Amino acid sequence: MNIHFALMFFSILFSFSISQEIEKQLDVSMTAKWEKTKLIAESLCFFGEFKKDQYQCAVNQINSLEKFSDSIEENIQSFKPCLSESDQKFLQFNLQYHVFSPRIAFYSTIKDNFTTETFDFEPNHKNIKYIDFNSPVKLPENTIIRPITKLNPDKNPQILNGYGVELRPFKYSMEYGVKDPSQLQKGSLSILNDESYEYIKKFEESEEVTFDNLVYKHLESYIMNSEDPLKELKEVVENWPIAMKKVYQSKIDENSQEEEISESVMTLNGRVIPFETFDPFTFSSQIFEIQKIQKILTEKFGLTPKKANILMETETRKSNLVIDVRGDHIIWLNNLETDKRYSKYSRKIDSLFGKLTEPPKVRHNLVNMVLFIDPSSSKDMKLLLEVHKLLEKGYAMRVGLSPLHRNNNENQIKALYDIFTNYNPFKYVSLLVKGDSIKSAYEKTTKKEYSEDFSEESEEYISLIDSFCEASNINETAIWTNGDLYTGNDLEDKISISPLETLQILRNLLMENEISGDYLSFILRKRHAVKRLIPEISKIRPISTKISQEKIEKIEEFIQFSKSINYQKRDEEKSLVTCWLKIYNNKASIEEKIDEFFKSRHQSSVRLSFVSEFPSLVEQEILNKNNDAVLFLNGRIFYFNESFEYFDDLFSWQSLLSSQLSETIEDEDLLMFWSSYLLSLNEREIEIKHFHPNEFNPDEKFALNIDGELKSLEVKCVIDPFTKNGQKIIGFLCHFSDLSFGRISLHICPSTRDLKIPKSYYRYVTDERALLSSFNNSMIYSILLETPETWMVEQNRVDCDVDNVLGSDLQNGYRYQFEYVLSYLVVEGFSYDLQNNPSENVQIKSFESDTTVMSNNGYFQLKTTFPTILDISLFSDFSKGNFEIMSGNKIVFDSFNWRHFSVRIQRKTSKIQRFPYVDDGKIHVFGVCSGRLYERLMKIMILSVKQNSQNSTTKFWLLKNYLSPKFRSELQKMSLEIGFEYELVSYHWPHFITRQEEKQRVIWGNKILFLDVLFPASLHKVIYIDADQVVRTNMRELMTMDLHNNPYGFTPMCDSRKETEPFRFWHQGYWKEHLQGKKYHISALFVTDLQRFREMKAGELLRDYYNSLVLDDQSLANLDQDLPNYAQERIGIYSLNQEWLWCETWCSDETMDKAKTIDLCNNPLTKAPKLKIAKERIKEWPGLDKLASTFEEKQEKNDEL
């Protein structure tokens, strides 16, 4: 006892001494909008979902307790009789991250409305009882216990963890002075003990070093010589700005070679866990899914645990339909293997295995693209021009043409043929790029007159392409890349996206196989390419089951069904294809065709059963019963009618996946089950990856291997420690290893040769808060949060400006608090029709929010304050008049798990009914701001709009994500006193749209990328105005302006201030060539016709352009401005009169008096702070600023009271 007391006293004394050394501290925390949940209640929810067979045992243990403990360790001790050692670790993981706290909030929201409905995550009992667990209580037997808590509590909210905090240097603020000098930084709390400070202090004692690319080897030496390598690695990567000095002191072998670069990836028993969307809540559910499937494989199919794990890590390729289009009909523009212009390219393909933003410059035709285009179509020819631009930039891919023969384009095809076979095709395409017609470009290239006297070979060529099109069934504009054929409206985007997608496929193929022959032949052979398309098959969008997510009882029923039914038709050899066929109409005719298939020669071995019903997990996916038959085929569901006759092609296509598995799996039922399982994972965008056995060998690699209690659970991770993902994942894995739950194999390896040390401090929050106790006092930082995909957060209480944290402004001896609150939960999903095609421009709503479905992929997102059951309905006259919801209208959202829900929405008739736009007479203004200075400027902008539009109702739509609680409070008072409406809007950046890391670029992206989905469907027009703008006119004029069928209107950049001409990048180089005489517009003010914007799918086009351009570090320097200007060819811009926007940087002084708005543009010449420009140049600004400050003064007085 005395020894324990002495140790405790020493620990407290040590903690006190450490905290006394810390000068100042940043404290970041997160709370939910419900009261702290009891650990005993969370534990019971754990049993209800993950350990149903021990649920009654857990109830008995709870009934034996005299009090409920707040200690995780004591709670686990209470349930020891019910759990194995490994399950106790699993429970500890779930309690540490409060995985089931949202489940308790969910029960609290539904208790008055859904008293009899039960869920898959509960035990199979009929009785239900809601209990608050505020004190020990006797729980009834054979009853579903639903723990509840208080919503919107006055105190003691649930503290959350499982997110990242980044302290990032804010370059934009440092360069342009966007810090508000009037704002004082106030700390009020005493400094806390920070365990990391012991490491930080050690790092700070180091000497300055010169950085080089051997930093990786220094890191390896430093970490592998430490007592606790993973803990040391975590502290280094979380504190790179100061840790680097200490790392460099570690000696390395002078003969050390740079490590081979490798792509970063993490798997859980073979499942790829994407870094960007990782969170511990979804990770927990994936652990359970893994354990469930392991149980199925061992108990139902008799596999040993080792063989089950091997199967779960078996990597397969996607079974997309691949076509081989090679032949003499293709006119190749270039050849990377033989053309002189590529002679300096390396023949080594090492760079293929690093980070890819474009095809690697190697002397092989790794990417082969063929354009199937009509040369008489300007739209089709634009695809050729876009490809030409890429090739001119040095894009390393082989490009070919295969013209499509139409009634009126024979001469254009012949001209193309003669030029591409006898002259320089690049010169010809260059002329087309500059605006020449085909005729003009032909004459300039050939020095001959354009006439009908083309070569005999060109006549024969017409016959050749006709023969190919007839044989292959390719008759529409398309892009073909290494076997994949793309058609539709987004082909321009596929030009830059498809090469990267095919290179990923090639990379995986090369990891598994030795190449023989040329790369294209190798790819097509390994991907089982076909020679022709069957339209009835190639246009099918099959439906997969959700077998990977289903509860175990449904999976067991599915397997029993497969094993017990009679297969009336089957081939003699092992069946690669399992079919269950249910016929509704024309039974005799369909059965006859099936007979004919089995009697005739066919490509794949098949077994088929005629069934009267399907197992429940198949039946629940069958919604379209207007066809003659439904076919379940290796995990996919197909609808077809009597006229369908391409069974051989269909079965062959569906055997592509099972044929890859057949070498490993002998049992036909297991083969069918595993194909179904993998297709279900594929539907959820979950990939499988297998690592080479030497990947984590510490004798050959910088690798760490840490054992855990559960040997059958293994996390394998190749991670780049010089990235934000590295900072996040290493922080999590360090905590995961402390639990000793599963095995961890970690290979630390750079993903690029261009190493850059992170300039940010990072904390992955596994407890109640993130503490940052050391940083550069002269650096301005921004605090950025990296939260789970289901979270939308906002500031709740902050002691200083989150965008301008300057150490020298902070007082010594204080802790500065940054408290955030979980404002909304994000509900994501996809909406499809019964044919599995994405729903088009449908507006849907739930109780708290509405949105427009993205028509290119069917994606939607809604918001809810608390976990609940969402009732989905159609919103707007357009949607109600044209569509109906067929299924998925109830969404059970009960956890933080990231998942996608499915809603089936069918069009009522083939003809779309339009509804007229009704002007509500208001001025609608959209604004975005972050940081105290921009909030100050935003108030002035709002006042200037309102002062100039007294006769019109004005409503402001402000992006909620970054507003401070102080500004939100002032805004409410301003709206009441001055008389305007406002609404705070938000949109969670979807995972499939490349994310930004710089705070300013995140804000720019939010400003332009989500215009079609950010606002309610009832809003038809909105004006965006920068926060740093002063308005001098009635904005109603802009609301009613005719945009001449364009979706938006911008003001062109001024050309009148001559001294800034060198900075007008749009007058030179790339932009001058791209614009082709069009104007370059400024994005500080623009009006958007949302109805037109949505009709023409402008939002989706912008996002597609963005996704393709953002991969190039040189593109989109001014994201919100460059993007609409770049897209002008497809998304027209109406040019507003110059007087609509004036800024000092680009516009002359003489034009200022006519300006309708004045913008505080950044000036690259002076880099003067915005406040200085405003006070000197805008005469009304001081008065507006004084008026705005009165609201701040009133707010401060209220706060004091």
From TrEMBL:
Q: Which organism is it from?
A: Trichomonas vaginalis (strain ATCC PRA-98 / G3)
Q: Which residues form the Glucosyltransferase 24 catalytic domain?
A: 923-1189
Principal location: endoplasmic reticulum
Locate the UGGT thioredoxin-like domain: which residues?
Answer: 221-314, 326-534
Cite a GO CC annotation: endoplasmic reticulum
**Signal peptide start-end:** 1-19
Keywords linked to the UniProt accession: Endoplasmic reticulum, Glycoprotein, Signal
UniProt cross-references to InterPro entries, sorted A to Z: Glyco_transf_24 (IPR040497), Nucleotide-diphossugar_trans (IPR029044), UDP-g_GGtrans (IPR009448), UGGT_TRXL_2 (IPR040694), UGGT_TRXL_3 (IPR040692)
The record lists the lineage as: Eukaryota, Metamonada, Parabasalia, Trichomonadida, Trichomonadidae
One GO BP: protein N-linked glycosylation via asparagine
Query: Where found, per UniProt?
Result: Endoplasmic reticulum lumen
- The protein in question is named Uncharacterized protein
Tell me where on the tree of life, at the top rank, the source sits: Eukaryota
Q: Please list the cofactors this protein needs.
A: Ca(2+)
Q: Which GO molecular function terms does the record list?
A: UDP-glucose:glycoprotein glucosyltransferase activity; unfolded protein binding
